[in-house]
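Re: that chain you flagged

S.,

Sorry for the slow reply, it's been a week of failed gels. I finally had a moment to sit down with the sequence you sent. For the record, here it is as I used it:
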Amino acid sequence: MAGRKQHFIPQALQRGFGQAKGKKTQVYVFKKGQEPYLSSTEGVAAQRDFYSEPSDEETLDDRITKYEELVLSPAVTALRESPIGPVDANVAAAVIVHLTIRSAFVRGSFSVAATELLDHFVDSMVSDEKARTLLGIDSLKQDSMFVERIEEDILAKFGEMPEHFRNAFGKLVHFRAREKFRQMFPTLAATVLEQLEVLLDKVPGLIVSSHSKALDRDLAPKARVDRLKEMNWRIIAVDAPEHFVLPDCLAIGSPNPHFTGMQPYSLVNDDELAGVVMPISSSKVLVGCTVAPELETSVLNVAFAQCSLEFFISSCVDAQSTHAAAHIGEAVADYMGKLIEGEAFAAPAANASDSAEVSRKMQAPVRVPVKFEPSSRKSGKAQAAVRNLMNVAELHDGLRTVKAVVITDDVARSLRQRGMALNDCGAQMVQLGTCHVTETSHGVSSELFVTTGSVNQVVKGGPLARPAAALILHQAGRATYYAIISERLRGVLSQPRPTLEVIGLRIAHFFCSHYFGMRLSQLGCLSAEEFAATDALYRQALAGNMKGIADARLHFMEHRNVDAALTLALGHLEQMLCATANACACTGEHVRRWRTSQSFKALEEASLGDWFELFALDLERFFESRERMSSDSDLVLLGCHIERLLWSFGIVLAAPTPEQVWMEVLGDEQTENVRVMLRA
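Prediction finished late last night. Pasting the structure tokens below so you have them in one place:
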């Protein structure tokens, strides 16, 4: 039976880094943040009952001791006595895998990772915004923990429901949870924090148990051994006074043959591994590489220290060891930081070319041609006023795609002269100006149409100049939106999609362009008088479009014509979402200002009060991500708002196949029940 003091770094290996004192060997131990001390190997890297407690039956420590005596110690001795040059890959692989898997480093690093991960969860639960990201509340991905849970619950309770209706119901539940998350958060946070506290107490015991079970299964896992056998192995040596230290992780790995970016071997995936280094004595290292290694031995001690968790062993106290000790734990801390935060949450760092491009944009105003319709209205003052107004750095990306700014007495007439078909509703929508976008082989091209009246107000100055300038800048902001989307997401958005998603994206493009237009219009904070006027206009738009959507439902119930009813509903829906996006944008981050408005009362009557604030949150997040946008996920999420709005009016869209869109309408009583549920 083995003793109770059990070494997680065998003395046979430690002796290669010390000085013999009689029957014992002494080594210097450099611990993080402490002065080095001299100790016998009997007391270094050992812990009472580390692997197992005493027992009448064979224990894990008994098995490890036998493995040391029969396999490990002879192998270490053979490697240590080998001349400089190639060595047997089978021996090298078995030694490294066994030593690294049995070490306290494995337990310690996993414990640190688990504790920091749980601490990160705890920190994230202090605010609903951080928790939204952590829990994936706003994700539509099927592998989202939140989406999976919703789908599982709906399948369990409504398994007999057709799949496309289950999917539609799942979206409704998801939206409602997103809308109410802020109110749900305090209770949710208390429950989660209580569970995390219990889990934190259990982490050390769970890791010890898991580590012991893994060792009990295999003292040298075959998959890891086989990966190392594929490498070319050799001994590399140095002459005194140079020497090597022994890290508590025992071996380090690199993703390339240049041995840069080294990490503890235990933490590197096999498929990312290109090179491995393990010191076997103070003068020799064992090196494995997929190709001929390019290794600079002078940097190894610092790398060994960086990859240590708590300590390393050295044969002496000298400048090399002392310098290396200052770096203990750096690579481990970096690894843990990336593991906890995740690469996806970090904004891409700007490089020098990015900075130069930003500087260039700010220093080079974009001169856009200005046209007048009719041409008799041409005015040098008006032209100068428009160009001066648009000399805003944030608009330069958009203005580079603009063929011309058209100052016209009648926007609808100018558009019709260019071959656009506009009905009365369309003419009304563009009467204050528009941004007409055309896709080209290189991206997008835009024409901005603004009214002669707005430009004249800017030229004259006075109280109406500010809102008139905002109307003009609004269209330039929309051009900027389309330029950003074309540059960053063109390839993504051209991919084949289900029809319902295509409809959502088309409408989302429209209202997002208006949100960007309003946010980039430089309007600033609205005065009380301006806000009251905005409220009145928004309330009017809500009333008309809510009635239009309700009429579409009645039209379907009477005529059962899906195409006509859906076209009618989507037309009013698009206008309502556009008006709402403008309303959200005009208050920016202070969207709660709307809570006391007449418009918000109208929204609440239709069970859309919570939805309004969620819509504003989604738009704000999308707008703030514009400089680092690389995915269409936020835009697809915004497109789903069309379905959420229609539920409040008793209209349900479903997609039985990717090519089909089904429309179902609820009766008056069912519609009211849905609204009650959405208000609950």
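What I noticed first: Residues 163-217 form the longest helix (55 residues).

Talk soon,
D.
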